[in-house]
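Reopening this ticket.

The earlier resolution said the output was attached, but the attachment link was broken on my side. Pasting everything inline this time so it's all in one place.
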Amino acid sequence: MKNMDRNKAVLVLVDYQQRLLPALHGGARAVDEALFLARLARLLGLPVIGTEQNPAGLGPNVAALRELCSPTLPKMHFDACRDGLLHALRESVAPADPGDVVLAGCEAHVCMLQTALGLLRAGQSLFVVADACASRSPRDHAAAMRRLESAGAVIVSTEMVAFEWLDACTDAAFKPALALIKQRVVDPGPA
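Inline output:
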């Protein structure tokens, strides 16, 4: 199994819409993790793409997160690939085919899942950041992660992404990235 290649990586953040978050188990925590990932990606010069499900009806993503995404794609399909995500991925990196898509979002068992499956069908190497995803219930979140892993996605944590992107303590971005890492409030969760 290969490590993530930050030289060809893109971060995709699916539907962190303010109106949806109160209904999601762990929604605030998922937003915190997504903000960390987006800030780290920007520090490292990686593209960050956001999506919003039916923004006219559900409103925009959390403002702080939306500011870190360029572009933010409006969509009506649950699978963002059907509304232009694949094109946005190819536009965001050179060479024109991103090697690794690092994906997180809400709801894990609906839009994030269907987008992930679309990316896998398109042949993308996919890493799903479990602790940056949320669903209405923990059961749905867990089911989504199991399904994605069996479909070929690699399930990772936020810090796994951070340290694989950095690769070594000699990386020029290590010290500023470490400052971001130290600011995180770590949820001990179940062992």
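Reporter confirms the inline version is readable. The domain at 6-183 is CATH 3.40.50.850 (Rossmann fold). The chain has one domain: 6-183.
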